[in-house]
Amino acid sequence: MSEAIQQATPQPATGSASELASLDGLHNQELLARYNQSLMGVFGTPQRVLVRGNGCTVWDADGKEYLDLLGGIAVNALGHADPFITSIISSQLSTLGHISNFFTSPTQIALAEKLLELAHAPAGSKVFFANSGTEANEAAFKLARRNSTATRNRIIALDGAFHGRTMGALALTAKQAYREPFEPLPGGVEHIPFGDVDALRAAVDGTVAAVVLEPIQGEVGVRPLPPGYLKAAREITREAGALLILDEVQTGVGRTGNWFAYQGSVAGGEDILPDAMTLAKGLGGGFPIGAMVTFGEQVSTLLTAGQHGTTFGGNPVATAAALATLHSIEARQLLQHANDVGAQLRTALAGIDGVTEVRGEGLLIGFDLAEEVAALAVRAALEAGFIINNPGPRTLRLAPPLILTGGQADAFIQALPAILAAAAEAAAEAATEKAAPNADAPKDTP
Length: 446
Fold this sequence. Notes:
The chain is of the alpha/beta class. It has helices at 3-8, 16-21, 28-38, 71-74, 83-95, 106-118, 133-146, 167-172, 176-179, 197-203, 229-240, 297-300, 316-331, 334-350, 374-384, 406-435; strands at residues 50-54, 57-60, 65-68, 126-130, 154-158, 189-192, 208-213, 216-217, 223-224, 243-247, 276-279, 290-294, 355-361, 364-369, 386-387, 389-392, 395-398. The chain starts with a helix and ends in an 11-residue tail after the last helix.
């Protein structure tokens, strides 16, 4: 190493190491104050500062322990700090990190082949790797546009859909609060009523390039498509010459107790193959990666050289992490485990006072409450040592690591009545304060 390079090389006590060390010993509130000073507020203020994880457990900067029943929103399929995933990522990074897509790597090829095998994809099927779910859905949006003609230019999505926040994916997303600040969005997308086969049949004709569906909608509280809907969608799109694109970003990679939701009971036991499928979240076991799988030669040749791309997508580290994740799910029989523990949770939740409906498959579960106290329940759960999520005012969502044990599930079920009681009490206190007259308001004088 030349003297100039040696002088320019940061020493261990300088640079990022010392900057991180300056945060050591700070507590949640101190760190959150610095967060608000330095990070853009698109997420609001985080609930806690998490500093360490192991399996299904995480710890915050104050040393408090939590059972993670959200898994980074269905991302940490194998929990936190899985030794096998950690060793694979470290080994790959020490061998070959980024190489660009002018080149390929054995891990990229092996992962593509494995995904095609698990998806039961026919000959001619292909994989495109990205870095996230929204990027995978951007690729799917462009795939749909490549199935367009002068007269075939409509894309159908469903009310309640969430497909991402980048511009193409946002056009597919239904929620107006997400869409309106960024309109006009890419055109040609129409949203039709959720789960209504007649509405789908009426909407899809020779002018439709693609229909984009989530087998289970996560954003609106884990809402599975009705039995028979996917089969009907497959038949309707095939007859019309439209693509059937399934967004399995949240439901894929074992989350529903099958490799992909279209292979399970969401599909009504039918043997359904889409034209394309998008993946992300659990695929990398916590390492960022997304993918679009195209089924069959005709669909797989719609995007040609130069029509899409990515700098980091499919890099050796991400694909090694994903391969290790798939291997672990297989070796540890986590598909069956997700089915078993998921069924245990859903059965127990249905017996809890104040729970009015339970939905989901495997370890993707949503349940509704009798009152609109879901946000307060999330707060009470944190105080009790559980991380959950509220996609709606009366809906709670669970998407824990696939390694969640029956005992850990039971611990949450046992704590849930007290959590809901605390949420109800907080709601009552807030209502009382709102109704009380303002003590500082001026009083009438005679």
